[in-house]
Amino acid sequence: MKFLLGGVPQHLIKRTTFIPEKYKKYVYPFTKAFITQAPGVTIISQELLVEGCNICHYVFITEKELLLHPHVDEPIATLHCMLQGTLDCTLKNFGPVRLYQGQFDLFHVPNMMHEARMRPGIYESFHIDLSKDILLRMAPHFESVRGMLVRAERGNPVLSHKPGILQVPLVQLIQEIRECTIAGALKDLRLYAKLTDLLVFVLEERQQSSTMAFERDQQLFEAIRSFIITNLDKQLSIPSLASSYHISPSKLKYDFKTYFNAPIWMYIIRQRMEKARKLLHETNMSIGEVALAVGYQEASSFTRSFRKYYGHPPRREKKLAPAG
Fold first, then answer.
1. 78 near 128, Cβ under 8 Å?
2. Which residues are bridge partners to 105 per DSSP?
3. Whole-angstrom Cα distance, residue 263 to residue 234?
4. Domain 231-320 falls in which CATH fold?
5. Per-domain residue ranges of the chain
6. Which option is the CATH number for 2-215: 1.10.10.10, 2.60.120.10, 3.40.50.720, 3.20.20.140?
7. How many CA atoms lie within 13 A of 18 on its CB side?
8. Positive or negative: CA dihedral 190, 191, 193, 194
9. Whole-number Å distance between alpha carbons of 54 and 7
10. Cβ-based burial of 147 (10 A; exposed 0-12, middle 13-18, buried ≥19)
11. Which of 2, 19, 207, 281 is most buried, by CB atoms within 10 Å?
């Protein structure tokens, strides 16, 4: 996929493979990274072609409102995962689509100029442009793929009937793909197996959820809850979460408690403490490493929170861990 930056003259756009230190945390080892910089925006892009499927990881860091024009040379079917940030898009001949943080969707994107509007912030997406071969392999097993192929033949944009939630197994598969360090032909085999697993997981989830009725808000709050569970290492403040999902902090607090019977701040603490306890029991991570893994920059702050929650410090929890 290519991007045109609305209102930015071409001579002001610079692209290089040199990644400044402050941006290296956004780069993964599965393939080479490029950085594109223009006034008000930095784009880190990584793309790798595997057996006809294009694996793409993008990070957009915007300092001002930005109009982006995504486009493709040839029509593509893509599995799109919004890892961070929420995008308001307009698909040509289809209409507006909101891509929420923590959700995935299946698209057929024709080779037209589309639009995406970005507020100041950080946006991270992972998507796989799917080959026709892999779709044909899936079609006998999944009605949604058969429908997508039929409608795609007409040249119109296709969006799956509703977005899916980036649950823990799906996020783990994405992470395994991005963290792949194998070289040579074995790398393609491993990555193709992983992306096939990822696609099957998505299609099975779509097939099961098609029989379940969710209110629109309930779907949104399920995505918020899943995002919390899979991003406990990040700073999860109520204002930032509300902004990411284009809702008010008061709605976030009220509706989260309505759906999940717990205040959101209490839910975040519980998830962090339970994950920390699991890591202390099941890994050799130090207290400081566990603290970072559950969103605490300082081990002392983590120790205070852990003691308040469990009644004893994390060091004692390590001693209580079952042997072997």
1. yes
2. 80
3. 19
4. Arc Repressor Mutant, subunit A (1.10.10)
5. 2-215, 231-320
6. 2.60.120.10
7. 2
8. positive
9. 28
10. middle
11. 19
List the pLDDT tens digit at each of the 324 positions of the chain.
Answer: 778 888 888 889 999 999 999 999 999 999 999 999 999 999 999 999 999 999 999 999 999 988 888 877 877 888 999 999 998 888 877 778 888 999 998 887 777 788 888 999 999 999 999 988 998 999 898 887 887 777 767 655 555 557 888 988 999 999 999 999 998 889 999 999 999 999 999 888 877 765 555 566 888 899 999 999 999 999 899 999 999 998 999 999 999 999 999 999 999 999 999 999 999 988 989 999 999 999 999 999 999 999 999 999 998 887 666 654
Residue type, 308: K
Contacts of 4 (CB under 8 A, 6+ apart): 68, 69, 71, 113
State how beta strands 103-109 and 164-165 pair.
Answer: antiparallel
> Count of residues for the chain?
324
